[in-house]
Amino acid sequence: MGLGAVDYGTRGLVLAVRRGLRPRQWVYILMAFCGGLYAEIVGGFRHYDPKLLRIFGAGMALSVVGLGFSIMGLRQRNPVRWHAVGCSLGMIAFWFLSAMME
User: Fold this and answer.
1) Which sign does the torsion angle of CA 87, 57, 9, 29 carry?
2) Can you give the pTM of this predicted structure?
3) Cα–Cα–Cα angle for 8, 14, 19, rounded to 5 degrees
4) In the prediction, which pLDDT does 71 show?
């Protein structure tokens, strides 16, 4: 059993501390860390494990909610309004492809 999942979570934590991320960005880091920690505790996930698929579903749901908020933010003129839409679409693609590779 490797420490890859714990390493993934700690990298996100170090990045968050270094950059001083906002509270809502901590949700993604906390989700990645807890998912990796859970995988280490239970000894990994089986193929098509229902708990892992729930994690994928939660990630997809958060990404869709983020896309909705970023689309609502397009009405305001600011320099990052299109970046938010692009990042949300990228996260949706990530969760979809992660679930498909399972």
Assistant:
1) positive
2) 0.63
3) 125
4) 92
From the list 61, 43, 55, the residue with the least C-alpha distance to 99 is 55
Query: In the structure, what pLDDT confidence band is assigned to residue 59 with cuts at 50, 70 and 90?
Result: confident
Distances in Å between the Cα of 73 and the Cα atoms of 25, 34, 66 are 17, 30, 10
Quick check: 26 and 16 in contact, CB under 8 A? Answer: yes
Dist CA 90 CA 83 (whole Å): 10
Mean of all residue pLDDT scores within the chain: 77
**How do the domains of the chain map onto residue ranges?**
1-44, 48-102
pLDDT at 68: 92
* Contact yes or no for 85/74 (Cβ under 8 A): yes
